[in-house]
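Researcher: Quick test of sequence recovery. Tokens follow.
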């Protein structure tokens, strides 16, 4: 006999199956609320979250400053056409230019949309149609973004729709990019760290080499900082480790603290004109207010520095405990609080075991445990995560 809470949960499962396309594999739990780095389900179970909405909830769940900013904006203006000016949009654009070193901003609603805008802008600016992307790269699931995304499982059902002018080269091999560039190449698009492939960190100097090659060949460089941005790797943006300046940059995820927003930024002279691109909801007042509040929290609570410090603590602790020398562990890698633990075998069961012990993690590329917790996670919470992971992995 189900309790009333269990009946409520079962009703959610039934409705989800009946009314929602089955595009996600979900554990049988219903998240009902969140605070900081913790989530709670409808049955009252609490979890330390190391998925973070997939690198979205940098300032944690329901941060008071973000909630208050949204409440204030709701009372004033929720949406107006981009045919008109709004203060939050202009203020956010100014802030993003200051943080990134770019010159102009186009607002949209997601990472995939920002990549679509970037590809379109690169083609428009250069008059060329070719793109070079990395094997293992992930940039989104819309047609253009999927065209520059590697991986049979993402592409196989849609190959007939994808751009034929994309070349894929080995990641972390700058010379492969030089070789692939031809007279029709508009741009190279890369992630500073590959996320969906399993937190693949390139060699030091790789991005600098790619930047130099693009400059030498007269090709635009697009950096996809959708997953790595806003302190995730211990810098505001991962490009900052090498002071690389892309021509075009895409951001989303942590930008809105959980509120949908994306942006494409570009250097001076690389921009759309009137009517060349648009987004009905892009840069709406609510999203921009959430983003401004989130950025303010990241600054005031020193979350960029915190990400670097806690990331180093995680790596050192795991190394001291000998977890990375276990036979089942192939490699430990990452920067800041973007961490991957690659195993010698599939890790789906580890995800399930961690959930049963109150920790949410996810698995990428079958064998990589990816940890991208809120940057506000406490040291005690992170220590608890480490202890649980060690218990589970040692048992394998």
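Model:
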């Amino acid at each position: 006999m189900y309790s009333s809470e269990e009946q409520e949960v079962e009703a959610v499962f039934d409705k989800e199956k009946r009314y929602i396309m089955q595009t996600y594999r979900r554990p049988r739990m219903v998240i009902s609320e969140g605070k900081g780095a913790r989530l709670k389900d409808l049955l009252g179970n609490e979890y330390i979250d190391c998925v973070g909405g997939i690198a979205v909830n940098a300032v944690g769940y329901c941060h008071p400053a973000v909630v208050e900013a949204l409440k204030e904006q709701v009372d004033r203006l929720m949406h107006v056409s981009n045919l008109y000016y709004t203060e939050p949009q202009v203020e956010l654009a100014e802030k993003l230019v200051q943080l990134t070193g770019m010159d102009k901003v186009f607002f949209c609603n997601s990472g995939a949309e920002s990549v679509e805008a970037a590809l379109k802008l690169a083609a428009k600016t250069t008059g060329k149609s070719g793109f070079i992307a990395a094997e293992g790269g992930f940039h989104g699931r819309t047609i253009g973004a999927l065209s520059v995304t590697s991986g049979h499982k993402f592409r196989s059902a849609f190959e007939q729709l994808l751009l034929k002018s994309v070349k894929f080269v080995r990641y972390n091999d700058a010379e492969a990019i030089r070789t692939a560039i031809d007279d029709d190449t508009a741009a190279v698009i890369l992630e500073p760290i590959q996320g969906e492939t399993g937190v693949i960190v390139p060699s030091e100097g790789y991005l600098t080499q790619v930047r130099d090659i693009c400059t030498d060949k007269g090709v635009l460089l697009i950096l996809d900082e959708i997953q790595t941005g806003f302190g995730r790797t211990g810098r505001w943006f991962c490009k900052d480790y090498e002071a690389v300046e892309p021509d075009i940059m895409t951001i989303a995820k942590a930008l809105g603290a959980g509120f949908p927003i994306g942006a494409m930024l570009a250097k001076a002279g690389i921009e759309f004109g009137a009517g060349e691109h648009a987004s009905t909801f892009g840069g709406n007042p609510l999203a921009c207010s959430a983003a401004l509040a989130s950025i303010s929290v990241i600054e005031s609570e020193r979350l960029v520095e915190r990400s670097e410090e806690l990331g180093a603590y995680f790596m050192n602790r795991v190394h001291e405990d000998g977890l990375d020398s276990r036979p089942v562990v192939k490699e430990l890698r990452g920067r800041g609080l973007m961490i991957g633990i690659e195993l010698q075998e599939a890790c789906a069961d580890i995800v399930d075991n961690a959930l049963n012990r109150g920790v949410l993690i996810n698995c990428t590329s079958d064998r990589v445990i990816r940890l991208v917790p809120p940057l506000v996670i406490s040291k005690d919470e992170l220590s608890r995560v480490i202890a649980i992971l060690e218990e589970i992995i040692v048992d394998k």
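The CA atoms of residues 229 and 373 lie 14 Å apart.
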